[in-house]
Amino acid sequence: MIAETFRIAMLNTLRIGPYDTPHRANPPVTEWLIAARGGPDGVYLIISDTPASVGEDTASAPVDLVEQNSIVAVLAKDDGDRPQFMMLRHPPGDFSLPGRFFPADGMATLTQYDGVLRLGAIGRHAHSRGSVNGQVVLHDIPHPAPNTDGAINWHFAAEERPWGTAR
User: Fold this and answer.
1) 106 closest CA partner among 147, 152, 149, 65
2) What is the DSSP letter of 40?
3) Within 13 Å of residue 126, how many CA atoms lie on the same side as its CB?
């Protein structure tokens, strides 16, 4: 059974491609993510990218990871060994979110093998930038997106890494 609350670092293999052709993706790159599960009965999964670059040592995550853009997903299928989450275009009103909300369409699945959490996800997004109270915000826009350069699909294959953080 996967825990209903956690906050962990993950090494992600990211592939991105054109918005309308999710079966096509560019060569993979790696990035550090922070994944957190919480809310009532663990119904929310937050997947956040970080500004930290990936170095040669990927056995453990950098201590200073911090959330940058955060995808929020809500529990869609409550399978204790393989919970599935649907990504949201609008943030839930009752939830404190680290980083900047990142509207997205897609699904994420958590699995666990030998005590290590894994995250698989596919999704896509189309955003327009704005600001509220001097802070940059991203707004979901309808399809077809007027700015197709900012509309992409992506695939995540992430695995938990030890992370010595005080947070």
Assistant:
1) 152
2) G
3) 13
d(CA 139, CA 127): 5
Tens-digit pLDDT profile for residues 67-118: 999 999 999 999 879 999 999 988 888 778 899 888 899 999 999 999 999 9
Is the separation of the CB atoms in 146 and 129 below 8 Å?
no
Helices (H), the chain: none
- Interatomic CA distance for residues 60 and 144, integer angstroms: 40
Answer for the pair 123, 92: CB distance below 8 angstroms, yes or no.
no
Q: Which is nearest to 73 in space by CA: 84, 62, 59, 61?
A: 84
Q: What is the distance between the alpha carbons of residues 99 and 96, in angstroms, rounded to a whole number?
A: 10
Buried b (16+ CB within 10 A) or exposed e, 21-54: ebeebeeeeebbbbbbbbbeebbbbbbbbbebee
